[in-house]
Amino acid sequence: MREKQRLKLTAKRFLRKIFGPKRDEVINKWRILRSKEVYDMYSSPSIIRVIKLTRMRWAAHVARMLEEELFARV
What we know:
70% helix, single chain, mainly alpha
């Protein structure tokens, strides 16, 4: 759980640096983007989801390799 939180925070930090500050028209000052604004601009799945999908693909790959190895020995 703690690792997930750290990954989310790191991803937010990187995205905020990439998109930079935004000029607020109402108060006429620069401000940091809010999380929702960042995620609206960057429409990609969360880092946690990407990591889980990658792990699942890797597990499936290993399972297939084990099956192929068993059939090759027979």
